[in-house]
Amino acid sequence: MAAGAASTGNWSRATGAMRAAMVLWVCLAYMRGVCEDWSPLRLLVLLVAATLVARWFLNAVRPPPSTPCGTPGGPPVTAPRVRLRDGRYLAYAQSGVSRDRARFKVVYSHGFSGSRMDSPRASQELLEELGVYMVAFDRAGYGESDPDPRRSPESAALDIQDLADALGLGDKFHLVCSSLGSHAGWAAVRYIPHRLAGLAMMAPVINYRWRGLPRGLARQLYGRQPVGDQWSLRVAYYAPWLLHWWMSQPWLPTSTVVDGSAPFPNALDEKNRVMALSNGMFHSRARLATQQGVQESFYRDMTVMFGRWTDFEPTDLEKPPFPVHLFQGDEDGVVPVQLQRHICNKLGWVSYHELPGAGHFLSAVPGLGDRILSTLLSSPASA
Fold first, then answer.
1. Which of 218, 215, 213 is nearest to 345 (CA)?
2. Per-residue pLDDT tens over the stretch 331-354
3. Residue 96: which of 135, 61, 66, 38 has the closest Cα?
4. pLDDT score of 27
5. Which end of the chain is more exposed for a tag (fewer CB within 10 A), N or C?
6. Which InterPro entries match (predicted)?
7. How far apart are CA 78 and CA 92, in angstroms?
8. Around Cβ 146, how many Cβ atoms within 10 Å?
9. CA distances from 166 to 78, 169, 171, 189, 357 (A)
10. What are residue 328's DSSP bridge partners?
11. Do 312 and 372 contact (CB within 8 A), yes or no?
């Protein structure tokens, strides 16, 4: 693990050196083109100034180091954790019936700014009736789970597999994913299909640059997003190394999802947004999610979700050997329902459940958690 960390550090230094060289090259090319008549002294002064600017810029865009739980200066470890294949730790929380008497084992992957304390909000009565053991976990870099600088859709799926193995959930288990955390659901179809008995995704977030989407419609819907969100997604895709600086500076537009400023078209979503801001819940959740560093939680999430999907995209996937259900509100202000319909129509094997009058935060819809869990666990291949 130490060798891996050293390798990562060397790569970061090499990347920084290359970026600095690029900046200096641009400066030299500019001087050569427009400063041909300048004296050597003036050129030297300009070169020194350009070097200082480049150095300042590289320091400004470099994210601060993370502060993992349990390390000197880091937050304390308060939750149960399991150790993963690469030595990292994943924090989790359990609900429902005990593992030893459960008929169904369900893993829950939370959304953006969430934590292990989130769930589909199925009633305790239903969990008891069906015999459901549910485990939710802090995704890598969130809450009390160690950061993963190499985080990707594949690593998200393997984290879930490692969690299931460490807790003894058996050869197969069910998976429920919410919002941005659903990239782990698509990745599970791709990388660990042999481990799942069923999958349900709640308003899974979409990358507008997926090749399988209709380009004209994707551009049109992308253009309807707040300007700050459009620019944040551009940076996450084209210059992920710049994202921390971009989100930290005060004079350029940044994500309204991160700061909670964007109103929602759905009445329940908007009511909950205003309430969470007024009672402090929005900021307390954000502090809990980012206590090890905002770079390895929020911004790593944005980079993984809205960056380049090089190995696969959802519309590339083949039908898995288990049922897949997708629940989507038709008043979702975060995920355009038109694009969700396109993905499900193209795949064919996804059981698509469109919810009239529902927004993005489906776990807040009364009774919907029971419906989602009942639907997933009663599917023929789930038994």
1. 213
2. 999 999 999 999 999 999 999 999
3. 135
4. 55
5. N
6. AB_hydrolase_1, AB_hydrolase_fold
7. 10
8. 23
9. 18, 8, 12, 20, 40
10. 354
11. no
Q: Token pair of 81, please? A: 């954790």
Distance, in Å, from the CA atom of 377 to the CA atom of 71, rounded to the nearest integer, reads: 40
Calculate the dihedral angle through the C-alpha atoms of 46, 52, 58, 59, rounding to the nearest 10 degrees: -160
Residue with tokens 């030893």: 100
Q: Quick: pLDDT tens for 154-211.
A: 999 999 999 999 999 999 999 999 999 999 999 999 999 999 999 999 999 999 999 9
User: If we measure between CA atoms, which residue out of 332, 328, 357, 330 comes closest to residue 344?
Assistant: 328
Tens-digit pLDDT profile for residues 45-94? 777 777 777 677 677 778 889 999 999 989 999 999 999 999 999 999 99
Tokens of 305: 């979700």
Q: Which domains does the chain have, with CATH numbers?
A: 81-210+307-377 (3.40.50.1820), 221-306 (no CATH)
65: its two tokens: 């180091």
Identity of residue 256 = T
Mean confidence (pLDDT) of the chain: 90
